[in-house]
Amino acid sequence: MYYPVNEMFQTIQGEGYYSGIPSIFIRLQGCPVHCKWCDTKHTWTCSDTNKISIEELIKKNISNKTWSYIDVKTIIFNIKKQKWKARHIVITGGEPCIYNLSFLTYGLEKNGFTCQIETSGTKLISCSFNTWVTVSPKKHKNTLYSSILRANEIKYPVLKKEDLSYLDAILSILKNRKNCHIFLQPISQNKESLKICIETCIIRNWRLSIQIHKYILIR
Length: 219
Description:
Blueprint: E1 2-12, E2 22-28, H1 54-59, E3 68-71, H2 72-81, E4 88-92, H3 102-110, E5 114-119, E6 132-135, H4 145-150, E7 153-158, H5 164-174, E8 181-186, H6 191-204, E9 207-208, H7 212-215
């Protein structure tokens, strides 16, 4: 199985449940969701004119539209070749779930890694049983019922107080089915959104996600 990889790099996970954990990010190219506040719009389209070699991809140190088609064995080989110390893999995008991630997640697990997927929940999630699934539902973007039920963590972006009504609708589906971690995340470090998130987290005993990587200026 080949995947269009936009970039691979080692860093600290800055969001949600695994915030602060050393992680290797595998960012996939392609996204049909197109959120207006998206900070990775360069991953939306998968044009052949932006295709590069795996060697060029590994050397890449800035986020842009270039990507490389890579099979699972080569992905794992290059992770080991870099001698990165992190054992947690974050598969993100774009929207990674437009692809079948079972091959990638099982392959990584067989090599001693834990996997996490960051998805909008608008596409069918195909991955290993042990993969940690972070679903970030977006208003008016048709979050799938199956994605909500599969989520280990719901990381919900908030701009204004009215946004919380959609989250309540999603949580009504979960009910008491399982212990799903709920995070509120202010969009684009907006101060008013942050205030809303903090107040709501305190009232409802949820957790706050503040994208620490953007504050400490790392990828």
